[in-house]
Amino acid sequence: MGYFHRLHHETPTRLWINNPTLAEADQAIAAGAISCTTNPSYAARVIKMEPVRARSAIREAIAEAADDREAAGRAQLRMVKAIMEKFEPLYDRDPGRQGLVSIQGDPHGDADAAAIVDEALRFRKIGKNFIAKIPCTAAGLKAFEQLIREDMPIIATEVFALAQAFAVCEVYARLAKSCGKHPPFYVTHISGIFDECLAKAAEREGVAVSPQALAQAGCILARKQYALMQRRGYDVTLMGGGARGTNHFTEMVGGALHVTINWSTADEIIKIDPPVTSRIDSPAPQAVVDELCEKLPDFRKAYFEDGLAVDEFADYAPLQYFRNMFVKGWDALLAAVREQRAGLQGAA
To answer: pTM value?
Structure first.
């Protein structure tokens, strides 16, 4: 068996694949991926990696919608729908537990809870194996409340700080108890992007932090989040995300959690073929935690449960750093829609 098949046989840790092309989706499923995440940058990646498929989706969307923003949204759904069809047999085999494919909409609407809810309800019509992917901000928390009542499967994304994680866990616990709905619910920790953001901040501000400490920051937080979620008995699943290296997967192995990574990272792990080693309970070196807390305010805000207030979530630097990637990806899709529409109008 390959690495991920052995992983699934020996541990409760599970692989999801992030933003795959059609070919990568097939490879990931064969390698053992149980589900799939996409984000607002997905269409930009398809435009780059699968230009013929992207042009076809955009052309069909333009024919249906005169407004460029609406056409962009429709084009994204067409691209993700093809991936949902790849994972549908897994969903049919084990509904609600595998074969799920996430969709996250226009990041320009992230501050509007009503818009988030409206998008999720529309996306749900695309396929039975849809799962909503919604940022953990004040607006996202309001959207979670309504969507849990709708029995909507959800990934709470853009989680970097413990305050975010436990705010959303409490919302789920309260709503599930009050309305009796218990949809599949995943709470992310975005480890690799967090490490990257801290490293850039340290460089920009001239703060000397050991590379060894920076390389451990995201996984230290993810493990702490997992341990506290388990101890408190929340009926949710931790999902690791935002990987920037194989360590952001392998360092999480052993827990009853899921991790989503790009195919390039999964393929690298397959080629290395390391032993399946449980690391989820590895203790955080206190000297490393102390250094990160002392030198990096954004780590300190993330490490302590009271480090951020709810109304500070959306402006937290790592979340903004991540969100800007989504805005850039979405704007690339919008530019492609406008360019293709202009070309079609010129040809006419």
So the answer is: 0.96
